[in-house]
Amino acid sequence: MTLSTDETTGMLRIAGMLDIDVAQRLRESLLNCLSLPPVAVDLSRVEGCDAAALQVLLAACRHSTAAGNGLQLHALSPSISETASALGFSIAVSAEASAGSGPDGR
Amino acid sequence: MAANPVDTFLNEADDLLLEIEAAALSLTADPTGDAVNRVFRAFHTIKGSGAMFGFDAVAAFTHHVESLLDQVREGLVKVSDDLANLILAAADQIKLMLLAAQGGPPVDSASQAALLETVASLSSGHAPAAVGAASPQVPSAAAEEKLWNIVFRPDPALLSRGGNPVLLFRDLKKLGSCRIEGSLDRLPSLDEMQTEVCYLAWTIELTTIADAAAIRDVFLFVEDGSELRIEAVAPVVSVAGPVLPVAVVPPAEEARTANGQNQSREATVRVPASRLDRLVNLVGELVMNQSRLVSAASRFHSPDLAAPVEEIERLVAELRDDVLQIRMMPIGSIFGRFRRLVHDLSLQLGKEIELVTEGEETELDKSILDALGEPLVHLLRNSIDHGIESVADRLQKGKTRHGTIRLTATHRGSDVVVSIQDDGAGIDRAAVRAKAVARQIILPDDNLSDKEILNLILLPGFSTAQNVTSVSGRGVGMDVVKRHIDALRGSLSLTSEPGRGACVSLTLPLTLAIIDGLLVEAGESQYIIPMAAVTENVELPRGDRLRNNGRNLVSVRGELISYIDLRQSFGIDGIGPPISKIVLV
Question: Is the dihedral of CA A5, A7, A11, A16 positive or negative?
């Protein structure tokens, strides 16, 4: 997994393989993004994603506070979408990312 | 000390191979029943676990057999005697391979190759899939589709152990169409979560013709520690016209709790037999010392002492009974292996023999059970070889073409009676008598009862068999059986009806671990005589003692019985009590 920051926009780009080995680093990076003002995250260059990394993303997507520092997902790679779909979850690319397919958005 | 996982696999492999044997022997009798699935699952588990613990050769060999069985389940290969025999041979081969892997004799690669050729010849021409993860059953189009609800809440350690839910659901989709819904109800906040813990859970709707067992097989290696519920909702009806109402069948019972245990089945624990033996020995010591405590307390006449001593006596008796119960095992655990013996020997001798068993649930002590196997094998071999006639002979005598051997076990008081009865030719009394005369065991004019003639065959080397076969006939069977039974403090009886069959009955105690004994005293010393050996106690006043020709005698209901005076034998001084006790054994 590689992390880089766009100097112009301040967007965090995450690329490479997201798996259980990097899940802790991913979690810490996303926690940093859940700040004020929130940092957008670009996941379009992620090459692969396993269940451990996906649940970190889902936890990050669920994180939101009254202050509005929820995860700002700018883009998702096909591999993340495929893994999410295979495991019965959905991750929306927007400021209001949702997870799961239940009516309550769980 | 933690159990060695390889030992755990080897123990479980033994159980699975027994399961394969039992299922294979019932295969041809019930080809559409559950036997094929049981065999498949057992081979499947051996393959997976074998690969996990480094028994790669076993996994590779088992894979070929599993693939053939997969074709049987799909209806591409028919159940037959050849298939059943192949399964038995494959199970034997796996036993040898496991033994070789543990330092036993090397496997004969030629016979293994021949077995694989037989597997290939029985296959329907579809090549087995590549060796690797188990391929789930591809359902045949002929069976009825059902809708299944599956709830899977995996063990939190799933991900850290290398489990991959994506691959799991990919295998599940091979069974039919799936709707997978993920749940995040266990997922904590991002700052609280531990990334190696699996917080995800799923509810899945699966439409498939596969049965619950095939669905569960998909979760075979992730089931432990997980909550897995598989419930049938309804059969799926495909119609071209108006939609018909679908009856909702009751959900199949497949619930498991979060700790992986089936709610309807009691948890069991494997314990090394040596630990049980040590526990029994300690309880035995406790029982003896408790008896001494009771005896000593009775001399103090103290209510403060009497009450706790009585309570200890009650608790020790309960502990003794519970510990002995732990050692009790159903005799059916050894009956199962005899089906294979009868099957193989019948084939070898060209006879048709059915083994009928009754009383499998009858329990007796493990040590007696372990010692009973060999005598029963001898008796079965004799029955098959000398008792049951050939098909031609039986038909000529107006009997059914197949002979029957009935193996039964039943409780009788504090004993267990195990009987082996066949409907064969019976024991030829004239031949037995003639052999006994020829060996000068009896005189030609000796008048023997029927029972006495039959008991002659219990003598060493006594056999009236015309030929010594690899099955029996060396005359080393019956006397060995008798010695084994005597060593177990049991007894053996023979009955026979010419032309109709013979029956051997073994009467055995339930347990030898802790036995009741009669405490006797001579002078200051105490001795214990097993109660099983005691027939009667007789009082002997000093004035009634008799001696004749140097022997001590006592009159019991008019019969003079000689006895051993322990005081005399052990040189104990003094004249003894006014009334002595004679123990008749």
Answer: negative
